[in-house]
Amino acid sequence: MTLDLSRRDAVRATASAGIPSALADLGALVRIPSVAWPAFDQAEVQRSADAVADLMRGTGVFERVEVARAAIPGTDELGQPAVLASRPARNGRPTVLLYAHHDVQPPGDEALWESPPFEPTVRDGRLYGRGAADDKAGVMVHVGAIRALVETLGDDLDLGIAVFIEGEEEYGSRSFAQFLVDHADVLRSDVIVVADSGNWDERTPGLTVSLRGNARFTLTVRTLAHASHSGMMGGAVPDAMLATVKLLSTLWDDDGAVAVEGLAVRDADTPPYDEETLRAESGLLDGVSPIGRDSILSRLWNKPSITITGWDATPVESASNTLAPQTRVVLSARVAPGQSAQEAFAALETHLRAHAPFGAQLEFTDVDCGDAFLVDTGGWAVEDAREAFAEGYGVDAVDVGVGGSIPFIADLVREFPGAQILVTGVEDPHARAHSPNESLHLETFGNALVSEALLLERLNRRTV
Domain limits at 395? Predict the structure, then answer.
């Protein structure tokens, strides 16, 4: 016991001492605009992957480090470059797979950023920059934890470690499933740590135990064979915009709750969380009320939601007196844990076809479904994670649900059904991932790095 305690103390101290170096390396990664979307320079995604691979090589622990791509099923294309690193377990120890992603969201309107999106900037205890939180911080938590383990344990490190740093998570993980198949022998593990979620707050760790699924699709609404003059035909001819507005309004009731038959709700308790906290974390304007019913976290974690994320419409500056013959919208539905995303999409399609006004013609394209996820909290890896988080943060972890989705986890479950999956992260509720002024809370980052190092030390003492 004394030896174990002294080792944990040494790992904690080494990990803490390595935080400044990890933050410096994180800053270098943030400077690389690794947006996987085709409209952006794809050479930067490759440069980011190469930089991450160099960081993995620099730990000195891996027998294999490479940048690899996998085919996108159903196409002749390859996915974005991912980093794969591995070392085998010794002496009966388990193998852990560490996942994060090095690609980032587009910056959006750079005028809304208080500092350049790809110039890491520290203000008020936060590091600002695109990818500073989502998810290059996750990459550096893995790197920093491995560095601490290697420096502290040396030849006593018997834990098997595989690392998969994806390059297209923000662009749909199109080659993710194929990558798992291609490298199954290397990636197969006893424990998987997915560092791409969030925490309860800046100082309280969160262990994500549920994720909503996602059903996203493009809906095209047509009412006319061609555009017509709104003055001559308006009042007798339904334009596509009118039909679309009326159709979309049927998706919610007067409280803003989803009103689609067939979308499930999960029955589960949630921690206390008040409207004041929701307003602070979401930016809800004064006078604007929340939507839905029941506890706020049940709405965010356990109930479906539907959001219009895109809409083809004539810009205000170009408005003319014209009846639009067709319009397109992108709908993103979050699916309650326990319901398949395909089942949810079928319910949405049925509802929309049944409520199409004036006989409007509907077309559904670009359907993308990802299933929800529930963690089995009874495994030993979850217990190890709770203890490591309590040591690293100084407070007990909170089991959290996440309203967003990480659809590729379903691929991990399918490919590696025997693995225990831990969904962790470095984001706090004010990180603004995907938004202008994305940032990383520096204290949270340090605690996350120390906690993961302590988790790996615990796993290094287990036998399987």
Answer: 2-211+372-459
